[in-house]
Write a structure and sequence with these properties.
The structure is a single chain. The chain is mainly beta. The chain has no helices and eleven strands. The strands form two sheets. Strands 2, 4, 5, 6, 9, 10 and 11 form a seven-stranded mixed β-sheet that branches. A four-stranded antiparallel β-sheet has the order 1-3-8-7, with no helix packed on it. A hairpin with a 4-residue loop joins strand 7 and strand 8.
């Protein structure tokens, strides 16, 4: 079993910045990827989650088109942690952000989600 604990989020003004973090524990089969997906208000189904950013154990990263140049994902592999620095936030970034870990067995493990609201 893999557990993911997310931290960060909250209310941020447009143009502001805020970090998210995700710590994984349990039976992690590596190498693995870690990243974030988000679910905007009104999108209730898991398949409607949008890719934000993902990082692999080899250092490769991938970003959703809407966040490229504004968000940065990093990992601290020794602690099974991932971080998402979100800059120049826009109201359309408002969503619940979910941490995702995909192990070597291709099983997906989701965090509980953390709310990010961008509003003045």
């Amino acid at each position: 079993q893999v557990q993911l604990v997310e931290s960060g989020g909250g209310l941020v003004q447009p143009g502001g910045s805020t970090p998210l973090s995700c710590e994984a524990s349990g039976n992690i089969l590596g190498p693995y990827s870690m990243g974030w997906y988000r679910q905007a208000p009104g999108n209730e189904r898991e398949y409607e989650r949008e890719l934000v950013a993902v990082a692999w154990s080899n250092g490769r990263t991938n970003y959703g088109d809407s966040v490229k140049g504004r968000f940065t994902i990093t990992r601290e592999n020794s602690k099974n942690m991932a971080f998402l620095q979100m800059n120049n936030l826009k109201p359309e970034d408002t969503a619940v952000y979910y941490c995702l870990l995909t192990g070597q067995d291709d099983r997906d493990h989701w965090g509980q989600g953390t709310q990010v609201t961008v509003s003045s």
